[in-house]
Amino acid sequence: MDIPRIFTISESAHRIHNPFSAEKLATLGAVLRLEPDMRLLDLGSGSGEMLCTWARDHAITGTGIDKSPLFTAQARARAEELGVARRVSFIHGDATGHVAPEKVDIAACIGATWIGGGAAGTLALLARSLVPGGMILIGEPFWRQLPPSDEVARHCLAGAIADFLPLPDLITVFGDRGYDVVEMVLADQDSWDRYEAAKWLTMRRWLDANPDDAFAGEVRQLLNTEPRRHAAYTRDYLGWGVFALLAR
Ligand code: SAH
Questions:
Q1: DSSP labels for 124-152?
Q2: Sign of torsion, CA 166 172 176 178?
Q3: 112 C-beta closer than 6 A to ligand 1
Q4: What is this structure's pTM?
Q5: How far is the centre of ligand 1, averaged over its atoms, from the C-alpha of 136 (Å)?
Q6: For each successive 10 residues of the chain (248 residues), what is the average pLDDT?
Q7: Are 155 and 128 in contact (CB under 8 A)?
Q8: I want to staple 24 with a disulfide (CB 3.0 to 4.6 A). Which of 20, 131, 194, 222 is the partner?
Q9: Ligand 1 centroid to residue 77 C-alpha, Å
Q10: Separation of 67 CA from ligand 1 center, angstroms?
């Protein structure tokens, strides 16, 4: 079981597979008023940076599930490196429909809400793993400014304008689903660069090392076009954030 190969090439050096900097991830951990031994579940945990750094900084415990063997291995290595391997564990697997065997205090899905078939389905899925009064963390894109056309939206990792909402409307949707939005930390253009621009050097290094790989043509094409695409579209139009929700 694995994710498409382009991600394991372009994001192989990322610790955070989202438009968040280490500082923003730390800010999120600091504002949630985490307490020692709180239990977290993270669906689509990537390379495990959230659970590992929060275990180090706030003594939480947690489990992450991710479909990528590479990212899962990186998460386990990071836990060892930060000395938190007894607090966090990482499972390689499909998180679709996953409910924690033991209920958790915080259930998260950060930038992987297709796991629950969209934001609404992911909220319902995460809720099934939560203790009463537990918190949901959900990472979602939104429009910083509405694109003028569906074509521009398609350059912003969307299929159409209708795929994402402006920030106020996204917050309204969480309310309509019965949740208070109790915190949020948003990406900015610089943290978008940490996600997007960090792929470019990784792709270039990979191309230099693997010129004859069958995938090299595709990676070369992306490296030719991605910096301009990001500068012209994602950077201006696309927002992203993590929202902390408590059921009303
Ligand atoms: N939350 C992490 C990773 C976000 S990227 C972070 O912020 O760094 C999206 C992640 O979802 C990738 O690591 C990918 O491997 C994982 N993923 C995609 N489909 C999945 C599925 N069905 N089950 C579990 N993980 C999945």
A1: HHHHTTEEEEEEEEEEEEEESS--SSHHH
A2: positive
A3: yes
A4: 0.97
A5: 17
A6: 94 98 98 98 98 98 98 98 98 98 98 95 98 98 97 96 97 97 98 98 98 97 98 97 98
A7: no
A8: 20
A9: 17
A10: 6
